[in-house]
């Protein structure tokens, strides 16, 4: 029996754990993969207050983990498969066992969205669906393609440009949706090109990506671009991990909360990317976690 169980070990979950134990609560974080969540897999962390120089997702995630353990937060690496949210005692079922707590904080974030195009699954890891921090140097000297035009996509394109022969940003809209800082850096880059109003329709190849099928959003025309050995990095948004929370009413897949981060079910809180909110950044996730834990500890 715990006072508070937190599902998810990203910035929101770690923040919640640190604040919960500081208030004397027996606290457990359940994380299915690795501390840090999505942020732990990015090439660089930017715009967060007091980050270290050349902060990577990996270094940021490691410091999150060290801080939580030093604070006395218990962390178990187990995949949550079901929850019982109603009642005074909440239950969390994992693939390894079950846990109970008086309060729950749901902070298991989101999963990168797939494109759902032909060849995506068959060529995953073979030039398709790569990770910039992990695979950028592996594809050094090759042509690289970044799918997406928001901050995350453009930031990774800038990172990849140090390794790539060329980086092409494919975005289905007429303009990039990133901040001005990133737009300025793109303009100054010598090996990044934009291909706007374009959508990746399919990838082809056998043992590796050999060609990309690209659609023009304005004309509807299709182009088969042959580029054996290239690398494709997809940043097409995320999907909230809310499938297991069948007792909650969702808004477009996200969890509504009040100003205390409490859901419609008493004693159940949600924090970070999983909740209904305007801004999804590390800074807001950490804030959500703090608010949720402070209120859950009352």
Q: How are the SSEs placed, and which strands pair?
A:
Layout: E1 2-7, H1 11-22, E2 27-30, H2 57-71, E3 74-76, E4 80-84, E5 90-94, E6 98-106, E7 110-112, H3 132-135, E8 143-147, H4 151-160, E9 166-171, H5 180-188, E10 192-196, E11 198-205, E12 209-216, E13 222-226, E14 231-234, E15 238-240, E16 268-270, H6 282-296
Parallel strand pairs: 1-2, 1-6, 2-3, 6-16, 8-9, 8-14, 9-10
Antiparallel strand pairs: 4-5, 5-6, 7-15, 11-12, 12-13
Rg for CA atoms: 21 Å
Assembly classification:
single chain
Low-confidence stretches: none
Annotated CATH architecture of the largest domain? 3-Layer(bba) Sandwich
Which class of secondary structure composition applies to the elements? alpha/beta
Total strands:
16
Q: Give the name of the CATH superfamily of the largest domain.
A: FAD/NAD(P)-binding domain
Distance, first to last CA: 17 Å
The shape is elongated
Strand residues, percent: 25-35%
The SSE string, one letter per element, is EHEHEEEEEHEHEHEEEEEEEH
- Tally the helices: 6
Major sheet:
7 strands, mixed
| CATH class call of the largest domain | Alpha Beta
Number of domains: 2
CATH topology term of the largest domain: FAD/NAD(P)-binding domain
Describe the structure.
The protein is an alpha/beta fold and 298 residues long. The chain has helices spanning 11-22, 57-71, 132-135, 151-160, 180-188, 282-296; strands at residues 2-7, 27-30, 74-76, 80-84, 90-94, 98-106, 110-112, 143-147, 166-171, 192-196, 198-205, 209-216, 222-226, 231-234, 238-240, 268-270. The strands form 4 sheets. Strands 1, 2, 3, 4, 5, 6 and 16 form a 7-stranded mixed β-sheet that branches. A 4-stranded parallel β-sheet has the order 10-9-8-14, covered by helices on one side. A 3-stranded antiparallel β-sheet has the order 11-12-13, with no helix packed on it. It starts with a strand and ends with a helix.
